[in-house]
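USER:
Try writing one entry.

ASSISTANT:
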Amino acid sequence: MSRTKSVQDYIRTIVDFPHEGILFRDVTTLFADPRGFRIAIDQMLHPYAGERIDKVVGLEARGFILGGAIAHQLSVGFVPIRKKGKLPGTTISQDYKLEYGEAIVEIHDDAIQPGEKILLVDDLLATGGTAAAGIKLVERLGGEIVSCAFIIDLPDLGGRKVLESMGMDVHALCAFDGL
């Protein structure tokens, strides 16, 4: 008898992408499979059953796919956090460090109201830089992060520790060792 596939079984690993020595964890194979995608969304929702969540915030770009599906299931709004210059209207921005240099993400300044309970989602937690910047944006608007949810955690890169040091609750469906 075959065992039931786990979320991790649906994720493809691509060697040496985007650079030599990197094992790229490709969630597009998970998204493309209806059963795999359903399992992932259901498992991402499970820890928050009965908990108040007012909006889901998704980090660009795969966090939009997950965040939209999760917000739909929760019957709440979805808010994107995007790279600088991609949102129309008035925004606030937050810079964060990359391996080589810096980047900036933005959110509409009216997307979250003070006191709203927010679930932050993305596909992968690596160093935690993008998620930490997203958390800061939400908090600057007065939102309260209920939790941060990811499909994949790369524990060797320390992102979970970064977010937990900010007082965040962190959930990931699976973890992969290495880079």
Q: What stands out?
A: The mean pLDDT is 95.
